[in-house]
Structures are given as C-alpha cells and as structure tokens.
C-alpha cells in the first residue's frame, strides 16, 4: 500500500476545505492541488471523492480526461515542444519524434532520473523562429535534433552541479 505522506495529505486537505463549497468544485480543487504539489497524488482521490460526495471512479475519470493533470511528480525541468501549425510546418513532428526516442519517454512522462518532463504545447508565440521549444521559462527557437540534445545535456549538467 502506498503511504500518503502527511505534509502532502495536509496540503490536499487544506485545498479541499477551501474550495469544496464552491459550485463545480472538482476542477478548481484538482488545479489547486496540482499547482501546490506539482501533481495530483493518486492517494488524494479518496479524500476528494468523500468531500464532494462522488465516487473515486468519477474523480479518476475527470483526472484522466484532462491531459494537463499529472498523477506522478514532475521532473526537475519541464521541456515543452510546440505542436501548433507554424512549428509543424517547420519540422516539429520530426523534432518530437526525436525527443521521445532520445529521452525514451512519451508526452506527459518523466525520465527515470526525474530530470525532465516532456509536454506538448500549442503555440509559444515564437512562430517566426519555428520549431520552438520552452525549457522551463525560456523559449528557444529553430530547434534542431542536435540543438535539442544540447539543451537536454545542459539540463543534465545543471543537475550534476546541484548534486555535487
Ligand atoms: S506555432 Fe509554434 S510557436 Fe507558434
């Protein structure tokens, strides 16, 4: 059985009691939990269901319906690849295929060392420099497969520096 660490449980309970009386409280609760913790711990589903008088299956259904909700902790860095039209016209599909195969993960997943989470995004407002990628808060344009690999290796280097 998974242990639901007390600080997490406490934060989830605070969010629930703050928002449960609002009409349509489920989505605001899920967003607020993810904002605070970076993800929605599967162990929180029972508390949410109980507070809103809904079944666990209903809560699970909503979480899995919306791709922006994650049920595992995010990686240290977030890398988003633009999938919108201008970027697609400039090779974003090949870039995302390269990213997935070189990292060994799909969208909404995190590398085994928890360095990096890969997410799709739909226009970063940087269409003139397509294909575009956002690494944490920084937008990078004209990203080739080589440039992508370089960005990833910089993130991994930063992690080693933090650990040493
Ligand atoms: S379409 Fe990719 S940045 Fe606008």
Q: How many angstroms does the end-to-end distance come to?
A: 34 Å
Question: Which compounds are bound in this model?
Answer: FE2/S2 (inorganic) cluster
- Given as residue ranges, the uncertain stretches (5+ residues, pLDDT < 50) are none
Kindly state the number of beta strands: 5
- Give the proportion of residues in helices: 40-55%
Mean pLDDT across the residues is 91
Multimer state? single chain
Overall shape: it is elongated
- Series of H and E elements: HHHHEHHEEEEH
Beta percentage is 5-15%
**What's the tally of helices?**
7
Q: Strand order, biggest sheet?
A: 2-3-1-4-5
Sheet of most strands: 5 strands, mixed
Which structural class is indicated by helix and strand composition? alpha+beta
Radius of gyration: 18 Å
Describe this structure in words.
With about 160 residues, the chain is an alpha+beta fold. It has helices at about 5-20, 25-35, 45-50, 55-65, 85-90, 90-105, 145-164, and strands at about 75-80, 110, 115-120, 135, 140. It has a 5-stranded mixed sheet, covered by helices on one side. A hairpin with a 2-residue loop joins strand 4 and strand 5. The longest helix has 19 residues, at about 145-164. It is elongated and about 50 Å long. It starts with 5 loop residues before the first helix and ends with a helix. The structure holds FE2/S2 (inorganic) cluster. The site of FE2/S2 (inorganic) cluster has 12 residues, from helix 5.
């Amino acid at each position: 059985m998974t242990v639901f660490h007390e600080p997490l449980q406490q934060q989830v309970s605070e969010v629930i009691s703050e928002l449960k009386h609002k009409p349509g409280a489920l989505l605001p609760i899920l967003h607020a939990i993810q904002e605070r913790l970076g993800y929605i711990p599967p162990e929180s589903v029972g508390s949410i269901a109980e507070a809103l008088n809904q079944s666990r299956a209903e809560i699970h259904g909503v979480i899995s319906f919306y791709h922006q909700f994650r049920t595992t902790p995010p990686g240290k860095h977030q890398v988003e690849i633009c999938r919108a039209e201008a970027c697609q016209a400039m090779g974003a599909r090949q870039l995302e295929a390269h990213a997935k195969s070189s990292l060994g993960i799909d969208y909404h997943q995190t590398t085994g060392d928890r360095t990096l989470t890969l997410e799709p995004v739909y226009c970063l407002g940087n269409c003139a420099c397509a294909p575009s990628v956002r690494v944490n808060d920084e937008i990078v344009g004209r990203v080739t497969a080589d440039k992508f690999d370089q960005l990833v290796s910089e993130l991994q280097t930063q992690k080693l520096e933090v650990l040493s």
